[in-house]
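Support request, please re-run this one:
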Amino acid sequence: MSLFTLSAANEYARANDIETWVHLFLNGEGNNIVMSEELKKKKRYWLGPIEIDMKYMKELLDRKNI
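Re-run finished. Output below.
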C-alpha cells in the first residue's frame, strides 16, 4: 500500500502525526521540498485530512491567476 493515500493520511492523523505525513508527501511524491521547509519555519497546528467542496479550491486558483 502506498504511503500517500487517504487511508495512510488518516492513520497518521489518528496517531496525532499528520505533520509527518505532510512532510513525507512534500519531500516525495508531492515534489515540493521548498514548501516542506517553509512550513517547518513556524509552529503549525494541523487538522486533517478533511473533506472540502472543490469549489473552494477553484476560488483559490482563480485568485492566484489575478
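The CA atoms of residues 10 and 33 lie 22 Å apart. The two ends are 39 Å apart (CA to CA).
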